[in-house]
């Protein structure tokens, strides 16, 4: 019972954070990158609906680590105009977008029971090349390039001073831990891939 209450509180908090990020990004509508951020808002809106649906069903939201990483990186891009035109930002958003297009296309067609087998295979295979590209030359490179600006401007000092650290130190710590945390998720996705594709194969054999 306690676990269920904690889970619900976590999911409610996630929904609140998603909505707050959406409101903050909306304030960027007059910037040079308004088109990009408008696009991101649409993705966040889908994430909000997904989180609310999971909360109503009292289920643990899977993949919420990806949501947290998205918020973290957007917090950097939003505050530092100099990094917004960097290649690392383009790589990051491209990898995220392709992953989401594949994932939600698979969800939609699976719900309608018309999902082709090749899309299922692609759904559980595309991450093999998309994730390393998105994480290495994308997310980690972006954080590294942003470090001088974060240090110079002392970003989010009001919040992080409460914990006796700077946002710069926090990002450095994230960069150090990032490969290990990412590798754990990456290996988990391979296990998930084997499981899903085996089930798909068994269903094909049963139909024959």
Automatic annotation (TrEMBL):
Superkingdom of origin organism: Eukaryota
Record's keyword annotation contains Transmembrane helix: yes
InterPro entries (UniProt xref): Tyr_Pase-like_PTPLA
Any one Gene Ontology cellular component term annotated for this protein: endoplasmic reticulum membrane
EC number: 4.2.1.134
Molecular-function annotations in GO: very-long-chain (3R)-3-hydroxyacyl-CoA dehydratase activity
Pathway(s) it belongs to: Lipid metabolism; fatty acid biosynthesis
Membrane topology: Multi-pass membrane protein
Leading EC class: lyase
Keyword tags: Endoplasmic reticulum, Fatty acid biosynthesis, Fatty acid metabolism, Lipid biosynthesis, Lipid metabolism, Lyase, Membrane, Transmembrane, Transmembrane helix
Broad class of the protein's primary localization: endoplasmic reticulum
Role noted for this protein: Catalyzes the third of the four reactions of the long-chain fatty acids elongation cycle. This endoplasmic reticulum-bound enzymatic process, allows the addition of two carbons to the chain of long- and very long-chain fatty acids/VLCFAs per cycle. This enzyme catalyzes the dehydration of the 3-hydroxyacyl-CoA intermediate into trans-2,3-enoyl-CoA, within each cycle of fatty acid elongation. Thereby, it participates to the production of VLCFAs of different chain lengths that are involved in multiple biological processes as precursors of membrane lipids and lipid mediators.
Similarity comment: family membership: Belongs to the very long-chain fatty acids dehydratase HACD family.
Protein name in UniProt: Very-long-chain (3R)-3-hydroxyacyl-CoA dehydratase
Organism: Rhynchospora tenuis
